[in-house]
Amino acid sequence: MTGLAPRAMRFGQQERNDNMIHSRRAWLKQTSTGFGSLALSSLLTRQAIAENRFDVQSNQRITADRSHFPAKAKRIIFLFMKGGPSQIDTFDYKPLLQKNDRQALPFEKPRVQFAPTGDLLASPWKFKPHGESGTPVSELFPHVARHVDDLCIVNSMHGSNPAHGGACLKIHTGSDTFVRPSMGAWITYGLGTENENLPGFVTICPTLAHGGTKNWGSAFLPANHAGTPLGNASQSSEQARVKYIQNASLNKVTQRQQLDFVQSLNADYLESIGPHSELEARIQSFELAFRMQTEMPTALELSDETSDTLKQYGLDDPRTADFGRQCLMARRFAERGVRFIQVSHSNSEVQWDQHGNLRKGHQQNAAEVDKPIAGLLQDLKSRGLLDDTLVLWGGEFGRTPTCQGAGHDGRDHNPEGFTMWLAGGGVRGGLRYGATDDYGYYAIEDKVHIHDLHATILHLLGLDHTRLTYRHAGRDFRLTDVAGHVINGIIA
Amino acid sequence: MKNTPLESLARAIVLVLVWSPLLSAQETDRLEADQTTTAVPDAQQIEFFEKKIRPLLFEHCQACHGEQEQEAELRLDTLAGILSGGKAGPAVIPEQPLRSLIITAVRYDDSDLRMPPEQKLSDRQIADLTRWVAMGTPHPDSGRTEVDRPRSRIDLTQARQHWAFQPPIASPLPSTDLASTAGSSSPNPIDAFIATALQQQGLKPLEKSDKRTLIRRATLDLTGLPPTPQQINAFLADDSAGAFARLVDRLLSSPEYGERWGRHWLDVARYADSNGLDENAAHGNAWRYRDYVIDAFNQDKPYNEFITEQLAGDLLDSGNDHRLRRERLTATGYLSLGPKVLAEVDEQKMEMDIIDEQIDTIGRGLMGLTLGCARCHDHKFDPLEHTDYYALAGIFKSTRTMESFKKVAKWNEISIAGPEDLALQQRHAQQVSDKQAQLDTLLREAKTALTPEQKEGQADTIEQRFPAATQQTIAKLREELQSLKASAPPMPFAMAVADGTVTDVSVHVRGSHLTLGEVVPRRFPRVLAGDEQPALPADRSGRLKFANWLTSADHPLTARVMVNRLWRWHFGKGLVTTVDNFGLQGARPSHPELLDWLAVQFIESDWSIKSMHRLIMLSETYQRSSRSDPELAQADPDNRWYGRFDVRRLEAEAIRDSLLMVSGQLDPTMGGRLLTTKNRTLVFNHTSEDKSDYNLFRRSIYLPVIRNHLYDMFQLFDYSDASVLRGSRDTSTIAPQALFLMNSQWMTERSTAMATRLIAAEPVFESRTTRLFEEALGRPPTPDETQQVKDFLTSLHEADPGMQEVACWQVLCQSILSSNEFLYVR
User: Fold this and answer.
1) Are B603 and B550 in contact (CB under 8 A)?
2) pLDDT digits (tens, 9 = 90+) for B771-790
3) Which chain B residues are Cβ-neighbours of A185 within 8 angstroms?
4) Closest residue of B to A288, CA-based?
5) What is the rounded average pLDDT for all residues in chain B?
6) Within this chain, do residues B461 and B399 fall inside the same structural domain, yes or no?
7) What SS3 string covers B133-192?
8) Which of A328, B473, B639, B756 is such that its CA lies 20 to 30 A from the CA of A87?
9) SS3 of A420, please?
């Protein structure tokens, strides 16, 4: 501890404000060679130990940014459509359904249903082929349809839970029975972060219902892998901020003075005890927090975006502005090296959950997200970010082709067959993968379970889902538990 | 422990009658006749097999499950093969089609087990197979076949050798001259064990801590609050030999002790005031369990009693003692506090998931065993059989945890109304009936006063003919009656369980309730309780027997697991570091003899937790210095041998409570309900509107624990997840913790309160600074530090001359309260 000279960062009577900044620099310089570097290295060792990064197969420790094999994607943006958008009204065209409106479903409904439904309900929207691939997309998504050749549409998604809560947990954590780490937590646990001044996993305006924080929680993984929420679904994205990122009463100069004082106390305390990696790490964590305070508002500051960009995301239109801002924030986080970014289309209703009022509800929902999503895809592409950014779109389940409620205008939850799409980050564009039956009820061909989707996402990010494990309560846990297969057919 | 043939027969008949829509009434009648003669099939039955079943098995099954190939080790071309089954268990259970795997498979009930895989059999074929199983699987080889019942592959005799499955034995204390490092006359046995191990490692322990350090360590440890300057001075002034022992006694008898150690237990009980998971409904009565726990710790309730009440308080005879009954019912909240998927549409799945959560919590919490791992198969590492799991599941299936499974499901609550509550209720009922009578009388009298013509017509028409004043009085009385009715005193309910329909549970093959195997009688895990266990009562769930078994003096786990928890909470790590797992994958104890000695001591002191505290805290091991010693740091970096005391960060609650204490704002009121959400209503609904308010000044243990939305300050500082038990919290060091300390309104407000108080109390700079340090850090500042503080305040003022004194002192107090010395205990 001889490198530590607490006097250097104490404030002599004659020191003025600028001297203090100077003395801080001196201290920081000192710490970069003195106990600071010790702190940093012990911080890293500690993390490696705490994070229990142990690759069971090769018996090697994997470091925060070393994946199992070359990654096709470096980061992921999950556009989460809360409530369950209807596959047969968007990306899963079913001619027979259109033909047999109001007729009985010619096969059995699932053993477990959320609520009873009636006969078939044809989609109120027309489908047209788009792009070179000629993929049919309904008129609900005119802007996204222009990017159809970049989309890898998985029509054969299936899960098991027909209730929002269970299904949200399933799609986010892989389990609707137990408390498990979320997908984003697993990914940052596996890959670490590219920008240590920002969290590795952010979720913008998430819903607090139906799993709430569990959907971005770290469960038994170390706490630093939990998602950092910005606002929540009841707030507009304009108000979405990270908590405690700014001091309401102290200006930066005063706060820096304060921090210097705290650090000098901490240095004395450390000296009285002797080398102690945790105390050293805590000293570092204050410096990191101070840097985060600057970096986070910069990431959220949209004033340096051109008006064309703002328009591209629909920020000029009150209908699309809220979700558009989320998408733009997502791009800005992606640029800054955030690993997992979730954007939620979730409001104070259950958003896409049209048990009735399908026409009005889906029309409005689609209108709010269509342009912003297209804008995001376009923007990522023009900035060269789409190549290594995986974009994922979808809800917690789909909807039934059979009708629910009065007025022949509603659909129930359907986890048996639904659609999600992926774009960029190593997936095959212009592809429709898998299929549901003639009416879009059950996934039947090349079925993709939620575990399979998770396995594939990890694969695209360079992680083997069977090897990304964490030892807890006596056994190794995985995002995919004991299931999941990588869907090679969708990988470019 | 097997079912008698008669019981099996009865069950089969009931099942067939209730469950099998494929059989006509006539067929069922015939089945009954068939079943009386299962052992020796008659010619007609054999003919049925030869004509219907053998061709079916041959055509659809034997390509994969025959002489050539035996997928999943199953062959269906011989009766022996059918009865012994394959990897998943016997293919049939004769006479029990709905418990037979082959029937589940052909009916495509379970999405993971569908046979034949490419094409479902016809309804007729399925009906034939079902009927054949119901007949008792008549086959030409019947009565001549030796069936190899698939037995567990676990060698229990061998498995019982695992250290944690052997009863603890108190070995003689190591020779005491090793133990005495500070010349005390009667060394603490803990020190004897620790010293022996240290010496074996060639390590020299550090000296005892100074008294200031000791009182801060002990006070934070036992109460979660820092000592006041007065308490410190009193302790420093006490030079007598028993000073520290008296300090420990004082702390143990303070009510804050229960608020601190009760909270430790709540981590093990995965306590929460809301359900979490999918439907985050308010546990409006959970607080009663929390208060029960605090009280139990403060009363030093013997641990065996404590867990018996939590597992089976409803089954204990409380006689006419109403308070006792109420306490014991409340204790069983332990079983029902877990997170549940309340909107699970598949009710049977929900029930089994809830039971699973109970088994997991009890297994890891009380026994240090991951019993939940045996839900789908034999435990992969520990000698716990698949059947052990379902034997326990029967106990909890026979327990009424839920009032209803219909979505949204409701957990069970039981009235704990006592004579005083009933008296209140009665008084209220009397008030209502008095008021009603008053109204009735008035109506009758007013009506009598009317002429016969006026009495004709509807009641309300007649009333309009009353004099105006009477009408007004009537209206007023009605209003009063209505508000009186609405103000009925709420009757107290507790989240509690009761015995339900007593039943044994079938093995759920691969954990699925759609694929049921053999029925397992309720019993305890064989590796611990032996192969021959007395049957559990047929008219009781068996919970009380289970609790008695767990708390019997020779149980190898219960006492060990708890003393290890106590050790963990005192020292920051257990003697067994995997405090919730004593199985084969768990860590081995660092000091096995010490652990055993403590366990035996615990039982011999009548399971008194407070005497364990005394024992531990009076040891030199507990009182050692925490300074870093180069030699020790080199030889034992993790301090596995306890040569020094570990420097540790305070837990979330201790940080918050300490902040409240030094701010002068701590509200010491004990107990009660702080949750504002109505019982069973959603804490969060679709709106995501956050109504939680944590701007409260009560101790942290009383803040509502909202699953899926824990208080973010708690989450930042590694609070328990509250959905799963956690006997050992992590200590993370992350930047958002620093952001909270630097920027939160909570910190600004606490430090402002402290600054305001200090300024008012101490006008002189030096004494004010001294008081700040003594209150926050438990020591006066050094002259150098006083100078630093002065310089800091000067520099603040120079940077911003407009800054008021209280603002400057707020920044100063916040700095001290954010410093490591405040946040850590050494």
Assistant:
1) no
2) 999 999 999 999 999 999 99
3) none
4) B735
5) 89
6) no
7) HHHCCCCCCCCCCCCCCCCCCCCHHHHCCCHHHCCCCCCCCCCHHHHCCCCCCCCCHHHH
8) A328
9) strand
pLDDT digits (tens, 9 = 90+) for B587-607: 999 999 999 999 999 999 999
**Assigned domain for B190 exists:** no
Name the band, by pLDDT with cuts 50, 70 and 90, for residue B95. confident
Tell me if B289 is assigned to some domain.
no
Who's near B185: CB < 8 A, 6+ residues apart?
A: none
pLDDT value, residue B597 = 97
In this prediction, residue A26 carries a pLDDT of 39
| Structure confidence at residue A79 (pLDDT) | 98
**pLDDT confidence tier of residue A50, bands split at 50, 70 and 90:** very low
pLDDT, residue B175, reads 72
- Sign of the alpha-carbon dihedral angle for B497, B498, B501, B505: positive
Asked if the C-beta of A54 comes within 8 angstroms of chain B's C-beta atoms, the answer is no
B73 and B123 co-located in one domain: yes
Q: B22 falls in which pLDDT band (50, 70, 90)?
A: very low
* Subunit contact B820:A222, Cβ cutoff 8 A: no
H-assigned helices in B49-118: 54-60, 79-84, 101-106
What would the pLDDT profile of B97-132 be if each residue is shown by its tens digit? 877 888 888 987 766 677 888 788 988 999 999 999
Domain count, chain B: 4
Write down which residue in B112, B135, B158 finishes a domain. Answer: B135
pLDDT score recorded for residue B10: 43
The answer to whether residues A388 and A440 belong to one domain is yes
Partners of residue B162 in chain A, C-beta under 8 Å: none
Inter-chain CB proximity B688 and A233 less than 8 Å: yes
Same domain, B514 and B392: yes
Distance from CA of B689 to the nearest CA of A (A): 6
Asked if residue A69 is part of any domain, the answer here is: no
- Identify all chain B residues contacting A11, using CB atoms and an 8 Å cutoff: 788, 791-792, 795
Do both B424 and B394 map to the same domain? no
- State the pLDDT at residue A491: 95
Domain housing A278:
6-59+246-288
Confidence of residue A219 (pLDDT cuts 50, 70, 90): confident
CATH number of the domain within which A435 lies: 3.40.720.10
| Domain match, A202 and A340 both | yes
Residues A97 and A147 reside in one and the same domain: yes
Q: Do B38 and B122 fall within a single domain?
A: yes
A298 found inside a domain: no
Q: Check CB contact under 8 Å for A11 and B578.
A: no
* Residue A356 burial (C-beta neighbours within 10 Å; 0-12, 13-18, 19+): middle
**DSSP labels for B754-773?**
HHHHHHHH--SHHHHHHHHH
Residues B434 and B538 in one domain: no
pTM of the model: 0.78
**Given an 8 Å threshold on Cβ–Cβ distance, is A50 in contact with B339?**
no
CB B596 within 8 A of CB B169: yes
Within a domain: B775: yes
Is residue A392 in a domain? yes
Residue B498 makes CB contacts below 8 A (sequence gap 6+) with B314, B399, B400, B412, B414
Supply the range of the domain harboring residue B90.
5-135
Residue B105 vs residue B392, higher pLDDT: B392
Bond before A318 cis per omega within 30 degrees:
no
- Write out chain B residues lying below 8 Å of A207, CB-based: 686, 688
Q: Which of A282, A290, A350 sits opposite B686 (nearest CB)?
A: A350
Tell me which of A288, A321, A349 is where a domain ends.
A288
For residue B49, is it within any domain? yes
pLDDT score at B544: 98
Which residues are within 8 A (CB) of A136 and not within 5 positions of it... i.e. 6 or more apart?
A93, A127, A128, A129, A130
Residue in B closest to A9 by C-alpha: B788
Chain A residue with CA closest to B812: the answer is: A258
Tally of domains within chain A: 2
Asked if residue A55 and residue A80 are part of one domain, the reply reads: no
Q: Is B477 in the same domain as B504? A: no
| A332 and A212 in a common domain | yes
